[in-house]
Amino acid sequence: MPRNWAELDGPARRFLAASAVSFLGDGLRYAALPLLAARQGAGPAEFGVLLGAATLPFLVLGIFGGVLADRVRRRGLLLVCDGLRLAVLTVFVGCLVTGHAGLPLLYAVAFLMGLLESLATSAAFAYLPTLVPGHQLERANATLSTALLLGRQLLGPLAGAGLLELGESLPFVVDAASFLLSGALLATVAAGLEDKPERRKGGGPAAVFADVRVSTRWMRVTPHVLVIACSAGVINLFNSGALAVQPYFAEHVLSGSAYAYGLMMASSALGGVAGAQAAGALATRLSSGRMVVVALAALGAGFGTVALLAHPLAVYAGLALTGVGFAVWGVATTSWRQRLTPHDLMGRADALHRMISWGVNPIGSLLGGLVAAHWGAHGPFLLVAVAPLLLIPLFWNRRADPAPREPETGERSLAADTTRS
What ranges does the record list as Basic and acidic residues composition bias (predicted)? Predict the structure, then answer.
């Protein structure tokens, strides 16, 4: 992070610092909420409901959050999201302290935090390019990716589990404080750095759905963005299957149960941190397309190592390599999409991308379980090893478009739809 961080301007650093703080709070909650549910007797079905409540907003409501992110100032929207998340957690902590936090309340908290997180994610994707010049996008996204991996996947979950042992409300108190600090840091970024959003007539359902249609039409006629989204969907389809059977793999292949499972998660996260740091340097030497090829090759080699070699050290090394691959993929494709996306479409474009690339996760999890049941725990890892390698030809000679393709405006689209009707 130091090199990437040092090359960014003050406003970008403060935005990234605010994001890092909120990512750490997210990681605390990601670990503490399921563990709290387990203490209340949650079984597999209840855990499924809890996970579904947290992820449903990204799949069902995410695109509408993108519409909002394109209609208002993104800095202000991020501040509102931090304030609302602080309020939700404050109420939740009060319920915990008074003994009124049953499973239904945990589901509600997971859903509300997922909803606000999906909205904040679209706003952050759209806001970052206003704070850095185009040639620094990879550096900025590499720093953001590092903060996310450390906060949400490594340090945050470890701290959340530890704090829960000291007191059920403690991780959620710290999580709430993270949003207070995040908002304070974000408030120091000058509001004038962001262009005023384009005014659109109408705020009813017809206007909102017109904005959604504009984003889908734009993606269809912007091949690079569509290929990136569909490729991410293919990778996530098989990766979610591997993630679903990872605890089973740890117990039956590595014979280490929870200990080995923790090392598998840590190996992937640490590889991701290294990959995010490397991505900033790679961007100065390789095109976006070639960076994606490097990422796909790393994913194929890493998952192939896990699938074909049963020795624990080989498995951990393979997962670390997959972490590198995912980080380089994320930095390269995110920066590429940001360059190709018109400013007033940033929120919707990111939300639509996430719907396509994440919407397959429930199917992939079921597929992974079925494959492991019939062909063993190695099967899902072998599938996710092959998939990225088959995608390499799509990116080998793909070059970045010279400029973003301007979409049809929401007002024009709405007017056309009205005329046709």
Answer: 402-411
CATH architecture of 1-194: Up-down Bundle (1.20)
Note whether 27 and 151 are within 8 A (CB). Answer: yes
222-404: CATH topology is: Growth Hormone; Chain: A; (1.20.1250)
What one-character-per-residue DSSP string does 307-361 give? HH---HHHHHHHHHHHHHHHHHHHHHHHHHHHHHS-GGGHHHHHHHHHHHHHTTH
The DSSP output letter for 100 is -
Please state, in angstroms and rounded to a whole number, the distance separating the CA atoms of residues 302 and 215.
35
CA 80 to chain centre: 20
Backbone angles phi, psi at 152, to 5 degrees: -85, -30
pLDDT tens readout for residues 62-111? 777 777 777 778 888 899 999 999 999 999 999 999 988 888 999 899 89
What's the predicted TM-score (pTM) here? 0.74
- 104, with CB counted inside 10 A (0-12, 13-18, 19+), is exposed
